[in-house]
């Protein structure tokens, strides 16, 4: 099959770290066709400086991208407020779309995008790349191997210490959207639709607008699964190693510290997806698995982390576009994740646990 | 020099034998072990007499304790449901009370006891011993040194791995005052109230996560104590209290404390209880008593000059339940309730928080407690 011709909207941090390298590293699957850089001029262009050697076309408007018959896929990695309108325009123009998180601000918008993609018979791929994080892949492999049967407790944390300004309220502002979208998506992948949602949104640092959350706590409970899922993020966490997962089953546990290495490797070590060790973790970061065996003995061991692979994300999307596979991260997952965010906002506002199915969004 | 306070201990069960009698005997300047209530004792056979010798009076009814003018304080380490009636009887008989947590199983009963004791100028001494756990003492020292800046996130856990019911213990039947919240949560709650005071609101989840035994019996819980911005609090604080029953971590995670300038993470549980429960219980004067292995030292992470996290181990303070007994001994000898570190009202406050957690759990909403 001919490589999928991708146009990337934006040439900021996200495009540089999370998208372009994975497109460029798979020339059998993708060709980086064009980059939309609003402020590019004939003489000055970041995109041309960085990627001109790849023969990339630099344009300055969305219209040029979606009207270009040579563009197959549009990667929407612009600021949050533009996610929905740009994705809508691209899908409506019959282009496949990879859409950065948070995909939209409302579940209604996700449903609208899903409908357009279906009608146009194109792929709408939410960029929930952390499904391909090493820690999550490792956790899933333990679950799939039956090593964490009958889960009772699932704690997932995405913490950092950052002075990020989170902007004005409204739209998809705040950490529940910004970081929560990732760990909510992972819970959606593992557990599906919750029965109840209990949430707390806080502006804990007391910076910026008081209505914009910089930390959240989310408890999810399920109809046919006794597991209690706790998702939390905060920007106040001073730690060398952030706790990531505490997962308990009826007879075993898995504890993992640290966050996936691909982003810091790309940002601070100048590594690319094809470099050996990309996505791999040192043993000091490996998680610990414990099991109460049949003889009543407790056995603990380190579990080597499966290397994270955002390359895998893009490989999966190519399969869906080419019709040789299906999306790992489906737009329906994104729609459910968005409804969970909306339910969380209701629960926080009303200070009660809400029945998910009874809410209309 | 004041005379030792004469103690009557009810029962010869685990708690009395491990947590109370050795400490009474170890402090002859404050206490004398006067009598023990052992219901099934006979003139020929008595566990108490076997263990503690002929100088300890063995009685078989509570009435004998209550009417004995030589008993100053009654030590109640009996099932939770007996706390209120036994403590009330002791106070009405003019005896001070040393009582295991929880003080009572309802706040109404607790309030009644506190008022009764105050009226009669008697002391209720609630055995919140875990204020003298090694990890908690270490934490208090760090807080006193102001290493954290503003504490914004605080997690305290009492997790265990118990897939099956232990069997044969009153602790596993449902009923008021039963369940993990009263049993273990009371320790965590008392520590949190000691550090941060009463929260503004509480969100609780009590569950039977093993789905064995009585479904009404909670074997695990999660509670959130909310401390919003106030005159004394610049940044909001959320405290999470957890007791998991199917937690196969070794060692168990105990504390995670996050402040604006530093964080502290501690694994493991205080060693005094296991040391006291050895087949040959460790002596309270043993230099190893209360001393934790250094592998369990907590990790303190601060921000260095460049704003990067830098971690180091913090030596753990020595745990010391004798401090509770010394404090209570002094207060009892002076007959002065204001000398008590663990105040009767604090015992009552713990029960109020437990009730709020149950209400929140049942009604699926955050409950105001201020």
UniProtKB/TrEMBL annotation, chain A:
**Pfam families given for it?**
GFO_IDH_MocA, GFO_IDH_MocA_C
Q: Which domain of life is it from?
A: Eukaryota
Residues spanning the signal sequence: none
Give the Gfo/Idh/MocA-like oxidoreductase C-terminal domain ranges.
140-355
Q: Which organism is it from?
A: Calocera viscosa (strain TUFC12733)
Q: Name one GO molecular function term.
A: nucleotide binding
Q: What is this protein called?
A: Oxidoreductase NAD-binding protein
Q: Where is the Gfo/Idh/MocA-like oxidoreductase N-terminal domain?
A: 4-127
The record's family statement is: Belongs to the Gfo/Idh/MocA family.
Q: Which UniProt keywords apply?
A: Oxidoreductase
- Record lineage: Eukaryota, Fungi, Dikarya, Basidiomycota, Agaricomycotina
UniProtKB/TrEMBL annotation, chain B:
Name the UniProt key words of this record, in alphabetical order.
Oxidoreductase
Signal sequence residues: none
Q: Give all residue intervals belonging to the Gfo/Idh/MocA-like oxidoreductase N-terminal domain.
A: 6-126
Molecular function as annotated in GO: nucleotide binding; oxidoreductase activity
- In which family does this protein belong, per the annotation? Belongs to the Gfo/Idh/MocA family.
**Which protein, by its recorded name, is this?**
Putative NAD binding Rossmann fold oxidoreductase
| Domain Gfo/Idh/MocA-like oxidoreductase C-terminal positions | 140-369
Question: InterPro entries, per this entry?
Answer: Gfo/Idh/MocA-like_OxRdtase_C, Gfo/Idh/MocA-like_OxRdtase_N, Gfo/Idh/MocA_oxidoreduct, NAD(P)-bd_dom_sf
